[in-house]
Amino acid sequence: MKTIMKLSLISGLLASGIVLADSHSDAYQKHASSSCHHGAGKSMEGKKAFWDKMAERLQLTTEQRASIGAVMEKSRPQTAAIREKIRTNRRELRELARNAQIDDRRVQELARERGNLVTELVTKRTKTRHAINQILTDAQQEQMKQMREKNRHHGKG
């Protein structure tokens, strides 16, 4: 009886350890991205509401809203494609970790690929942010900066 209880306890601990250790599981990623400060996991409605709120706070003109919308519309498919490649890369790494034997060469290839993809995504996002900043007035840029700082101090970034 004691042996069965010990085996059950050990099995439970191992199973929970595996779930907790896999921080790249789909459930974890869904939860983590949904609370991400830049809206990576938000629905299109949530992103629209966020930008509408920002436009109001910054008192954007109709022309500014249209220009920023065009910038974002242009960047959306590019960043979406990169994010999909990152997801595929993550799945491949996860599968390699589950194999009986580790393929060090393939892990290194995927790690380099992931680094390149993240670099590409950060570059595109920075260029998009820069293009949006060019549309804003100096006062609006300062207000945006203050809002970002305020969010950072509240643990949102």
Helical residue percent? over 70%
The gross shape turns out to be elongated
Number of structural domains: 2
CATH overall fold name of the largest domain = Four Helix Bundle (Hemerythrin (Met), subunit A)
- Spell out the helices and strands N to C: HHHHHH
CATH class membership of the largest domain:
Mainly Alpha
What ranges have pLDDT less than 50 throughout 5 or more consecutive residues? 5-40
What is the C-alpha radius of gyration, as a whole number of Å?
22 Å
Query: Based on helices, strands and strand pairing, what is the structural class?
Result: mainly alpha
Number of helices: 6
- β-strand amount: under 5%
Distance between the termini: 52 Å
Q: Do you know the CATH architecture of the largest domain?
A: Up-down Bundle
Give the quaternary arrangement of the chains: single chain
Number of E strands:
0
The major pleated sheet works out as: none
